[in-house]
Design goal:
GO molecular function: hydroxymethylbilane synthase activity
Structural class: alpha/beta
Distance between the termini: 53 Å
Number of domains: 3
Radius of gyration: 20 Å
Shape: globular
Bound molecules: the ligand NCc1[nH]cc(CCC(=O)O)c1CC(=O)O
CATH class of the largest domain: Alpha Beta
Cofactor: dipyrromethane
Catalytic activity: 4 porphobilinogen + H2O = hydroxymethylbilane + 4 NH4(+)
EC number: 2.5.1.61
CATH superfamily of the largest domain: Periplasmic binding protein-like II
Number of strands: 14
Family: Belongs to the HMBS family.
Number of helices: 10
Length: about 300
């Protein structure tokens, strides 16, 4: 393959400029180099500040949630300035711009959320009125479901910034994805790993994906070496569930799909923003049509059928 021979045709990998996103882009460049036998210097990592980063001080639900961290990267893919973009799959809007596709998924990291608390308390041990910082409507709703007596406040910024704010006493506890902590080498910060039944993760949590131009066969072929089929199927199933339910983008949704041989098992949850009325759904189906299964589960949740009664 005539790749990376000169500076001019280096493969440009776009990413958010956060430390986590940069670590993920480096991981992708390293794997591509290793799997394709290419020199490291044939990749150029291009960090971009996204709208979501610029709106750092405002709570996310106010500024519209999806696509905030990806739009700038997508524009540059379409203009040809970038060859591929590396994203946390959970930050990618369920509908992509025409001409782009998710061309590979890396093997999924830990899918779970963790609680990080200053005094080492677990979620059920936090004193009444303790302040929990999160700007995720899903995490806020799940905290309210388990601990309606806690005070949830907006809390944003890069992972390291949030941990510093926690240390400085701005909040008593916060919630983060274990995957991000692992990738940053900060897993020691976790106080309690929350189990996915009590605290369902975001659809696509823990998965890194590559987005690129559909018509660019060279890039589609290049990145195919990185694709993990089980992760791709599970995430496509979860994203279809989210897309089916997410008319308003305001409904807290959790979802986790797991592949077992030729089948996928999907468990999903939707819940009111105040933590009331959790609605759970579970479906099992063939791996041949992951998105159809996710959509079916979404339709069931919308219709209120096939729901599991509480507690499960
Ligand atoms: N929205 C920020 C974001 N996007 C992906 C991750 C974690 C990494 C992952 O889920 O793969 C995080 C931080 C967090 O939620 O703790």
């Amino acid at each position: 393959m005539e790749l990376g021979r000169t500076a001019r045709n280096r493969i440009k990998i776009g990413t958010r400029a956060s430390p986590l996103a940069l670590a993920q882009a480096k991981e992708v460049a390293g794997r591509l180099a290793a799997y394709r036998g290419l020199p490291d210097d044939c990749f150029e990592i291009v960090p971009l500040t996204t709208r979501g980063d610029r709106l750092d001080e405002r709570p996310l639900p106010e500024v519209g949630v999806k696509g905030l961290f990806t739009i700038e990267l997508e524009e540059r893919l379409l203009s040809g300035d970038l060859d591929l973009a590396v994203h946390s799959a959970k930050d990618v809007a369920t509908t992509l711009p025409d001409g782009l596709h998710l061309s590979a998924f890396l093997p999924r990291e830990d899918v779970r959320d963790v609680l990080i608390s200053r005094s080492g308390y677990r979620l059920w041990e936090l004193p009444p009125g303790a302040v929990v910082g999160t700007s995720s409507i899903r995490r806020a709703a799940l905290v309210a479901m388990h601990r309606p007596d806690l005070d949830v406040v907006p809390f944003r910024g890069f992972v390291g910034t949030r941990l510093k704010k926690l240390e400085n006493g701005v909040v008593d506890a916060t919630l983060l994805a274990m995957a991000g902590l692992n990738r940053l080498g900060m897993s020691d910060a976790a106080t309690e790993i929350l189990n996915p039944h009590d605290f369902p993760p975001s659809p696509a949590q823990g998965a890194i994906c590559i987005e690129s131009v559909v018509a660019n066969d060279r890039i589609t072929d290049l990145v195919s070496a990185l694709n993990d089929a089980g992760t791709a199927d599970a995430v496509r199933c979860e994203r279809a569930f989210l897309q089916t339910l997410n008319g308003s983008c305001r409904t807290p949704i959790g979802a986790l799909a797991v592949c077992h041989g030729s089948e996928i098992l999907l468990r999903g949850l939707s819940i009111d923003a105040d933590g009331r009325n959790p609605r759970r759904v579970a479906v099992r189906g063939a791996r041949t049509a992951p998105a159809a299964l996710g959509e079916e589960a979404g339709q069931m949740a919308l219709a209120g059928v096939g729901m599991e009664s509480e507690p499960v």
